[in-house]
Structures are given as C-alpha cells and as structure tokens.
Amino acid sequence: xxxxxxxxxxxxxxxxxxxxxxxxxxxxxxxxxxxxxxxxxxxxxxxxxxxxxxxxxxxxxxxxxxxxxxxxxxxxxxxxxxxxxxxxxxxxxxxxxxxxxxxxxxxxxxxxxxxxxxxxxxxxxxxxxxxxxxxxxxxxxxxxxxxxxxxxxxxxxxxxxxxxxxxxxxxxxxxxxxxxxxxxxxxxxxxxxxxxxxxxxxxxxxxxxxxxxxxxxxxxxxxxxxxxxxxxxxxxxxxxxxxxxxxxxxxxxxxxxxxxxxxxxxxxxxxxxxxxxxxxxxxxxxxxxxxxxxxxxxxxxxxxxxxxxxxxxxxxxxxxxxxxxxxxxxxxxxxxxxxxxxxxxxxxxxxxxxxxxxxxxxxxxxxxxxxxxxxxxxxxxxxxxxxxxxxxxxxxxxxxxxxxxxxxxxxxxxxxxxxxxxxxx
Length: 425
Prior knowledge:
- With 425 residues, the protein is mainly β.
- 3% of the residues lie in helices and 62% in strands.
C-alpha cells in the first residue's frame, strides 16, 4: 500500500512550527531556526563585525580603517586598501510549551576588499557575503486514526542565497558623497517534507522535495553627508535605498515513495510519484530603506542611531505570495577608542517579517564588541574585531516557538598602502 504525500502538503506547510515535538539536529552551518522555512529564510545583516558590535549601525558610518557595505557612499573614506574577512558562530535555544532544544553552528561570514581609485574623490569595494540562510531539521510524531498507525512527519530545510557585490563611492559636493552597489545573487534552497510509518510494514514512506535556485542582480544606493562642527565633533547623516528586484529562479519538485533498509542503513526508493524539473520563474525581493545619524570625535568616541524598513508584503515566489509582513528595525550603538582597544555597545529592536497566527514576531538583542589595535607596529592600522549578541525572537504564546540565541563574530580589518610609487632621495 502506498501513501501519497501530495494529500498532506497543505498540512505540512504549516505543521512545522506549531505542532508535535521537535528533536535536535547535529551542529550545522547557516540558520538554525524553524522560522527560516518562510520567505527566503533568515536574512543576514549587511554589516561586518565592527557594526555587529554596535547594534548593526551602518547608514551613517565611514572610517578609513573599515569597509561599510551597508552604505556604499561610505567607500569614499577608504583612502587606503582595506581587506576585511571573518567568521560567525551561534548557539540557539528553541523553546515552546512542553520542551526545548539547543543547536549550534559555525561558518565563514564574509570577505571584502576596498581601495581608492582617485584619492579623496572615488573609491571601490567588492566582496562576497551571505544574503539569506535556511536551516531546520524537525521530527513530529502522532497517532493517525485514519490509517491506524503512528506517523512521523519530517521537515528539513537547508541552503541559502549569497551575494557578490561590486560598489563605488564618490564625492558629489564638499561634505556630500554618493555610492551604489551592484550585487549578483545566487544560491539554492532545498525544503524536504516526509511522511514515515516507523512501525508499519504495509506502508511506503513518502517524501516531497522542493528546490529553488536563483541568479540575478540587485542594486542599492546611498548618500552620506559629513560636517565637522566647531567643537571638533563630526556629524554624519546617511540614507540608503534598494528597490524591489526580480531575480531569475528555477524550481524543481519531485515526490517519491521509499522504504528503510536495515541492511544498508539508508533509504531505498520504490517508485517516483511525480517529477517536475526546471520550472522557470521569478522571485520578487522586497525594497529596503534606511536612514541614520552619528556623532563623534574622531579617534575618541562615536554614537549613532539607524532606522530601517523593508516592504516584505510585495515579496513573491513564482507569482505566489507568502504570509510575510513589512518589517522595521531600530539600531542604536557606539564605541569608545583607547590606545590599544576599542570597546563597543549596541542594541536593536524590530518587528520581523513573520506574522504567524496573527502575531508579528519581534526580534531584538543587545550587542557587545571589542577591537584590538596596533597588531603590526610598523604597518598601517590593522584591527581584530570581536562581537557578541544576546537576542530573542518569537514567543511561546499561541503554541509558537521562542528563540533565544547567542551570536559570535570575529573579523579582521587589514589595511595597507597600494598604488603609490616609492620615492627615493
């Protein structure tokens, strides 16, 4: 007797987060959240480790020792060559009424290079960083009176989208800079839903695999205004915008029945119920806008605030809408610089794009960071940056899941002087 999983797809689509018990998966990379099944997964912030330690600031920051990809107008500050790369890790606790589990992950986070083209007038940057991530592995068991068997529902998701960018920042007027990033987005997301009969011998297990691969371009632009005040303070204000983009997508779906082989320890495919490959379409990504201000004394202290907003209600996947809402985030933070160390503190609060059971989920956290300077005494400034975030998303009300997490980042900002002809006496 076979069991057709297509009859359960409407149930499976929403069963993942809200029912049954979930079991932990092994340590993995990328997202660790069952909420990542929605949209294109968990969206990564664009900033690097320095900004991570200050609550995610970025719209009104510029510094010759760092790359600020959040606002391409800031590239004008890169008077030296800057190479920035790093990694991230996370410990996440998923909690709902009746139980909790813990996950952990680690992965590379980014690498980027920035350099001046015309010193003081134009600079460029390029790099690779993640755009979104999907990662969950959940098992649910229940007694199904229809078939008279224990049924196990398995939900797995993995993959994500990446972003390779090339950008430029240039001087428009004294104190006013503009910039633009051109990004190539690519990657694949696999979502797998299975129905198994662990104690039944007269049933085939069934599995549905949905894979989406994308490739396409997106653009974002920014403006940055800088003014040195009479008391020696630097005031900066910035805005950024990225319009909604349609990227190419290929969707592959297939269903099959299988049994478990005790001899080989793996699954044995019995027959293919349905196979549909390479359906072409579009994914419409949301538009994003941000604005921010910062105030500081160069080389001593800095404080700032940002507000960002994303239009997720316009998101479409192959002309289909998802249950996503417009989101916003408020970022505040700053840093204090000493001879060898930089100490950072920040916070963020926002409504995520997830609206489940008429509850739009909040996502907030506090951040801490430290920078270690003067790594090479006779070289241009290079800095090791460390950041930690304590955060929470979701709630246990309405049988939802509350996520509590600790995120870590480490980044290396290495500077050097290129393109200058040596002078000899």
